[in-house]
Amino acid sequence: MEMDHVEKKYHQYRTTRKVVFYILGILETLFAFRLIFKLLGANPASGFVSFIYTVTGVFLSPFKGIFSSAVNEGLETSSILEPSVIIAMIVYALIAYGIVVLLDISINPKRKEI
Q1: What is the pTM of this model?
Q2: CA 72 → CA 13, 14, 31, 44, distances in Å?
Q3: Fewest CB within a 10 Å sphere: which of 3, 46, 75, 101?
């Protein structure tokens, strides 16, 4: 009977861990699209580009203003480097990693990490 409880807890742990990494993967992919679109000067009036900018804008708001964006004017488009996107990618990855480590600790509190 005890083994069933342990197996259930471990299954919940693995499911939660997968969900955390799945959400992180989606978010990092959206950030990567935004970074590339801005660097290549994509048309913000395009539906897909506008969607990416809108969705990622919500998650980037805490990081806006940390660094100024670098703009390079071209003949037809402007290339923009937004360091806030890179910072957000790093911070969200660290948060996801921290959540997974806390899950690891909760599933096996006696485990020692170096």
Answers
A1: 0.82
A2: 46, 45, 20, 16
A3: 75
